[in-house]
# Entry
Amino acid sequence: MSTRHIILGLLASKPMTGYDIKSLFRGLSWLIEVPSYGSLYPTLHELLEEGLVTVRVEPGQGKPPRKLYQVTEAGQQALKKWFATPEITELSVKAFARQLILADCFSPAELAKYLEQRRTQLASYVERTASSAKNPGSDNGRLGHWLIHDYGAMIARAELTWLEARLAELLTKIQQPAQP
Amino acid sequence: MSTRHIILGLLASKPMTGYDIKSLFRGLSWLIEVPSYGSLYPTLHELLEEGLVTVRVEPGQGKPPRKLYQVTEAGQQALKKWFATPEITELSVKAFARQLILADCFSPAELAKYLEQRRTQLASYVERTASSAKNPGSDNGRLGHWLIHDYGAMIARAELTWLEARLAELLTKIQQPAQP
DNA sequence: CATTGCATGTAAGGGGTTACATGATTTT
DNA sequence: AAAATCATGTAACCCCTTACATGCAATG
# Structure
């Protein structure tokens, strides 16, 4: 959800043009929904009108001018507000993957808290559905039904393992904040 | 894409009501996009007008009547046509997961061919992106960028393993079509 | 006695994609 | 010579979600 917040979040880590933002998503369309220019540019204009971002125009030689968008104070507050929203905790691969890109908006501790939250949610999901994990023969002959549930369980388990690895990394980073 | 085709495909394996279809998706919203009633019922009406499905109304006692939708010849042809479409080969978790539910529309051999296709696509994806698999330190300091790519690689690898297991199962099923 | 399940639908509105328009520079 | 990269944008359209409206039966 909320393409505008993803865009805002990406701009928070570094000023960028619409084209830059789009490029960030290159090769990721199989995993997440990538905004098209038809929604990207209008969204940028909206954010500008609302005062959440500002523009700096760098005249391009031969090319159209680069319009570098930068988040304002108001923009950062809007972002913070969004992070506190229940929407951000939504259990969906789609939403989670999209939000992962915003990792740079958080401190290691905040990020760890977020991943921890997701781990808890996923774990409870796996537990709830473990009982219905049957063999292909059951499910009253519906192979498709079994396949999608098995696929889902597989994804959930894989993601759990991954989350634990990332959390372990983060914890060591938090405990020794100074780098060698 | 194409919610109408998913609905059509689900009806192909068994006549159902709009409510039945919706129920099939229960607990799956974290993994795939589940159509809301606001799109489900109107789509059913459209399919009916286009002659791709027929209705049989079973009067309900106290409850609204159950409207059982059933695919027609024309519907099955439309479905076959869709399966031959390049859209169906799209490399995206979202599209693939959604189509998995339609497994019952295929013979084991057809299904195997489909999974094989996806395996090939995923494998080539993993190979292409393996070179850019770096450690968290690189990626010019963009943790988010690294995270999403690592997450994607993890999902791709997990799915590959899963695909191989499912394919192995299917192949034994194809070689011994008669069950004990 | 309140909530969930069963069962159908509509209307307004929102958010997005597709297709188009433009054009120089670099790569194949 | 063609295609991809860089770079911005608009307008029509499409699909879908949200919120509403209805109402009985079973479950807790």
Remarks:
- Chain B has a mean pLDDT of 91.
